[in-house]
Amino acid sequence: MPRLPGVNHLHAVKAFQKAGFVIIRQSKHIVKARANRIIVIPRHNPIQALTMGSIIRDAGLNIEEFKELL
């Protein structure tokens, strides 16, 4: 599995938007959805690599696909 460094939360939001996710709600976390998938992105900078990896997996993507969206 390729390594993923910490990612700025704004870059992650834009990348998931390119993947077709739309913002449902915003507060301390940003909740996005696409079809039957819901992801929650924390507003931390940077988002730790392990946390980002699990968000990417919940979104149904792999790390390579996510890196292309960044």
Q: Topology, pairings included?
A:
Elements: H1 9-18, E1 22-26, E2 29-34, E3 37-42, H2 49-58, H3 63-69
Antiparallel strand pairs: 1-2, 2-3
What are the salient characteristics of this protein?
39% helix, 3 helices, three-stranded antiparallel sheet, 70 residues, alpha+beta, single chain
Low-confidence stretches: none
What is the helical fraction, as a range of percent?
A: 25-40%
Give the biggest sheet: 3 strands, antiparallel
Q: What string, H for helix and E for strand, traces the elements in order?
A: HEEEHH
User: What's the number of helices?
Assistant: 3
Alpha-beta content class: alpha+beta
Residue share in β-strands: 15-25%
- The coarse overall form would be globular
The oligomeric state of the chains shown is: single chain
How do the strands of the widest beta sheet line up side by side?
Answer: 1-2-3
Round the Cα radius of gyration to an integer and report it. 11 Å
Gap between N and C termini, in Å?
Answer: 18 Å
How many β-strand runs? Answer: 3
Task: Explain what you see.
By secondary structure, the chain is an alpha+beta fold. It contains 3 helices and 3 strands. It has helices spanning 9-18, 49-58, 63-69, and strands at 22-26, 29-34, 37-42. A 3-stranded antiparallel beta sheet has the order 1-2-3. Strand 2 (29-34) and strand 3 (37-42) form a beta hairpin.
